[in-house]
Amino acid sequence: MNSKEIRQKYLGFFEKRGHAVLPSTSLVPENDPSVLFNTAGMQPLVPYLLGEKHPLGTRLCSIQKCVRTIDLESVGDNTHATFFEMMGNWSLGDYFKKESINWSFELLTSKEEGFGIDPKRLYVTCFEGDKNAPKDEESAAIWKEIFDKHGVKGNRIFFLPEKNNWWSAGDNGPCGADTEIFYDITGKHTEGLTHEEYWTASEETQELVEIWNNVFMEFEKKDREIIGKLANKNVDTGAGFERFCLALNGKDNFYDTDIFEEIFAKIDAQHAELNPSPAQLQNPTALSEKEALRAKRIIADHVRTSVMLISDGVIPSNTDQGYILRRLLRRAVRFADNLGLKKGSLFWIADAVVNTYADIYENVARQRETIKITIDNEEQKFRNTLSHGLKEFDRIIKKLSSAEGAENKNSNEHLISGKDAFVLFSTYGFPVEMTIEMAGEIGFKVDKEAFEEEMKKHQDLSRSGAGQKFKGGMGDTSDISIKYHTATHLLHQALREVLGAHVSQKGSNITAERLRFDFAHTAKMTDEEKQQVEDIVNKRIADALPVNVVELPIEEAEKTGALHFFGEKYGDKVTLYYIGNTIEEAFSKEFCGGPHVKNASELGHFKIQKEEAVSAGVRRIKAVLE
Ligand code: SER
């Protein structure tokens, strides 16, 4: 059964049993600044699990996009991924343990209604009880009845402590005991297992894979402590989609499922023979088969996650979601180099990811080009500094390994200082986690705490200069000034693509001779970055993108993601200029009073003349149209 059929069957099964099918929400939670990403199917439903009435009723189901980066280092093994989808069904004070467990069993085993799994392959765990809640005899009894009814023999219900069979999304919110369903991927444990054998097979050999978690949410937690019972007895189940696909296709890892087929084919196709990367030239040792497989899986995983993040509006940057995206892409570049892929391969791998998800997520299909270009830009941007950064990394290691370094540092000769890690980050774009990983590969460590201190010093410095927001306007409305005004919008967006989404306008001034644009950014721009910005602007001019204007109510205008001054008071209606064919696909969108040219092709050739600092954290560009 392929992954598409699994999706349909899952949702169809619960829809038939009175559940409303919810679309997946964005990976970036809308109203919850405490988390960067949705990490579980239940996350968008927290208010309803806490008692709010859901408009679609008391039975819900969905396949929710999730990102978890906590296990980043484990990606590459059989069952860890940073992006995954979670199939879930919920009861909001409606049915409880009996229906929930019976339906899970039915969907898994029924040949007519479900997936037709042999029930002898199923094992389950239940909560053993503690000071907060009693032993979950009820779930165990339901399971026993089911197994007996289907003639499934042997010991297959295990009681485990809170660590294993109690679920909550974090330190706060709804929580409760759960029962977890495991699938025997080997098919050899047909007669039951002792507790010890179960433990080895699930934790060590991964012969038993957890495929479904049914949580019985009755309690609420605050700051890690149970503070009382919820208004309703709810059910929250979650089944990892990729793991389901693995189990139902008789695979032992999910990279061998049809989800990754096209993505892996593309990675293989991108294998370089004639185009060795800088990393290979420096380190021509070929990877072992095992290392090569791990590298491929890491690339596949990281590009897949990046595509999904970008489709939900995340842009590479140095903070929050954007930083995670940057880390993933840069790590993918490093492993692509280790594997010997052609430069620019991520662009093509991203294309395969888009193909894989185009039928399922409309925003992936619609933004195919934006996604690929964003990924390619980030790869190029990193490559501009990567080889110099690798040299700097080697220099640091040599320094530390030399007698002199060892003498100075005493027992710390294997510790990269916070300052060095910060230089690698700020000048060469190495996310600190990457430096730590590279250091670890050769037996070195990084002084992470000192690195954080360096970061903080640097942020304080940039903040002190960022307060002076001033909004320059247009001096006059001559034709040439109008052109410069439109060019300023293109420049603003190009800077965000090349340097990151932290770039925001701090001022603008236009004369008949040039434009001047001040923006938040800390580092001096490299020649390559300037070149990229110019290229992006000139490409939009060459594409002859139309310049459009609409008037929208402020809420609607904000929803388009158009740039504006945060904290600024706008009227109920605002004018929005966008450069592109449609507002969704526009290259640039800004709240602005105009005027602008009708088409980008009127601008001629755009050239940056100067880039300099105005104050801490603010850079200035002067540019001309030729
Ligand atoms: N919230 C539970 C989990 O994520 C079940 O959906 O495992």
Written account of the structure:
42% of the residues lie in helices and 21% in strands. Helix 3 (97-109) runs parallel beside helix 4 and helix 12 crosses helix 14. It is globular, with a radius of gyration of 27 Å. The chain contains 21 helices and 18 strands. The protein folds into 3 domains: 3-256, Bira Bifunctional Protein, Domain 2 (BirA Bifunctional Protein, domain 2, 2-Layer Sandwich), CATH 3.30.930.10; 258-457; 471-625, 2-Layer Sandwich (Threonyl-tRNA Synthetase, Chain A, domain 2), CATH 3.30.980. Strands 1, 2, 3, 4, 5, 6, 7, 8 and 9 form a 9-stranded mixed beta sheet that branches. Strands 12-13-18-17 form a 4-stranded antiparallel beta sheet. The longest helix is centred in the middle third of the chain and has 34 residues, at 368-401. With 626 residues, the chain is of the alpha+beta class.
Question: What are the key terms here?
Answer:
4-stranded antiparallel beta sheet; 21 helices; 3 domains; 9-stranded mixed beta sheet; binds serine; 42% helix; BirA Bifunctional Protein, domain 2; 626 residues; alpha+beta
What low-confidence regions span 5 or more consecutive residues with pLDDT below 50?
A: 462-475
Continuous helix count: 21
CATH topology of the largest domain: BirA Bifunctional Protein, domain 2
End-to-end distance, in Å? 60 Å
The chain-level structural class is: alpha+beta
- Which overall shape is indicated by the principal axes computed on the Cα atoms? globular
Bound small-molecule species = serine
How much of the sequence lies in strands comes to 15-25%
> How would a textbook summarize the main sheet?
9 strands, mixed
The CATH superfamily of the largest domain is Bira Bifunctional Protein, Domain 2
Provide the CATH architecture of the largest domain. 2-Layer Sandwich
How many domains in all?
3
